[in-house]
Amino acid sequence: MSTDAIVLLRDDHKAIRKLFRRFEAAGDGATETKNGLAKQIIEALTVHTYIENECMYPEVRTLLPALEDDILESYEEHHVADVLVFELSGMSADAERFDAKMTVLIENVEHHMDEEEQDWFPKVRDGLGRKQLQDVGARMLDLKKKAPRSPKQPSALKKAVDAVVA
Ligand SMILES: [Fe+2]
Ligand SMILES: [Fe+2]
User: Which residues surround ligand 2, an ion (CB under 5 A)?
Assistant: First the structure.
């Protein structure tokens, strides 16, 4: 089985986009449906951010120092999304600001994923060999098993604090 890091992250993005579309298609009053989808969105983003922050970004930063600026920008984009994800995790879909917060989250994450896919992944693929991408992918698959699934788990909270004080 291929464990190519970029294929893996693209698959994650695809699943996240699907959840976003389902959320957008849910009606205004569909509180239960939206609560359920929000839970899945929060989990998917928490896991995806974890494997990128813990593995993909630091690995690429070491192997391809020329991409440092892109990676620093990505950390900041993740950080903004983390704040919204954390707030949404404590809200119900019938709260006044829930839809607005989710809309801003979706817009921000779509922008970030587009940038990764259109600009960053091609640069990474050019710079790294097949074998390196497979190794990084295998490590991310492994990390996925122990990744936090909620932003309130200690390992996720610690990352959020590090992002503020680093
Ligand atoms: Fe990212
Ligand atoms: Fe990503």
Answer: 116
Taking the CA of 9 as reference, the closest ligand is 2
CA of 29 to the centre of ligand 2 (A): 31
Q: Which two tokens stand for residue 19?
A: 């959840």
Q: How close is the Cα of 91 to the center of ligand 1, in Å?
A: 24
Packing angle between helix 31-51 and helix 68-89, nearest 10 degrees? 150
Q: Which tens digits make up the pLDDT trace of 50-90?
A: 999 999 999 999 999 999 999 999 999 999 999 999 999 99
Separation CA 86–CA 160 (nearest Å) = 9
